[in-house]
Amino acid sequence: MTSDYFRNLFDSYKEIQLKNRYIQNDHILPLLENYKEIFRVKQIGFSVLGEPIHSIQIGTGSKKILMWSQMHGNESTTTKAIFDICNVFANSSNVDMQQIQSNCTILIVPILNPDGAKLYTRLNANSIDLNRDAKNLSQPESKVLRGLFDDFKPDFCFNLHGQRTIFGVGDTSNTATLSFLSPAQDEGSTITETRKKAMEVISVMNKLLQTQIPNQIGIYDDTYNENCVGDTFQALHCPTILFEAGHYKEDYNREITRFYMFEAILSSLMYISNNEVSGDLYEPYLNIPENNKSFLDIIIRQTTIILNNKSETVDIGIQYVETLKNGIIEFVPKVEKIGDLSNLNGHRNILAQNKEFSLQGQDVLAEGLVVETVFLKNIKYSLKLT
Question: Where is each Peptidase M14 domain found (predicted)?
Fold first, then answer.
């Protein structure tokens, strides 16, 4: 299938009620209510603070895929893509979509961590990272997911996440718009038959996506962690794929990335539906570059500042801090690094050319300082997102 094929589906069925970065239960409950006449929608448990956790079951086929989103409450792009895909299945007479539903049973948890989603935090209400609770199962949300896994007995798991803007692809200067991983299932990160099946599916997605966002796809380090959910499910011999929605140029609301994630998930479902995934075609996965923490949101390059009563030429790195305010995510610019940042890339670069840097009456420049406006030789630069 071509990109145009997926673009037409996306444009036709995109869920317009979900947009920007802040997605929580109040946003999806009306959508789930509408789905009850089409899919099997169930309340499957509660969060620490008593928020309901739901599942959506689509299709009747023998191949079973379990996927969950917003395990980390502030990673919402995959949730938007899930509802876009649900709309395709709910409304489209497309033969391919009908075939997926005949061949597969798809079980989706759209928001696993509703407390974290409401507060826009990575952690749950007990300040626990649910993706580090696979062994202890200390949290109600973790128990819900493990219960689903044990009862549903999936053939594949899709662990849906979002990554920060700091990640680049390998040694390139390209941002990692999407990233994947076939997690390890043992301390030696052995390439097992289970991992190969996940690698094969990732290879198929990568081949399609490279035609649109070339060299903007990475994989994560596969060091084994028994506390991670993906590693645990892989160790239980269920091919598990980590999906990470990342940054696309100037797309801080992740609406462009949303489409690529929609395409990745839907194309993987089509591949699983139409093929017996043996793992024999895993090798292209091994050529996907690994992610590096190689980006900052803004770098002011080669500006002159006064440090310790001396004039120095430095780079100043700014990173946005995502902050929930009145139901909207604001991107607050904060000084992350000061020094030689020539080894890092900036999503935005301000070339100071040794012009003098000042804050005009504000605090002394220091790491951690919130800085919305700077001056280079008295020329004003706004660091806010527009």
Answer: 15-335
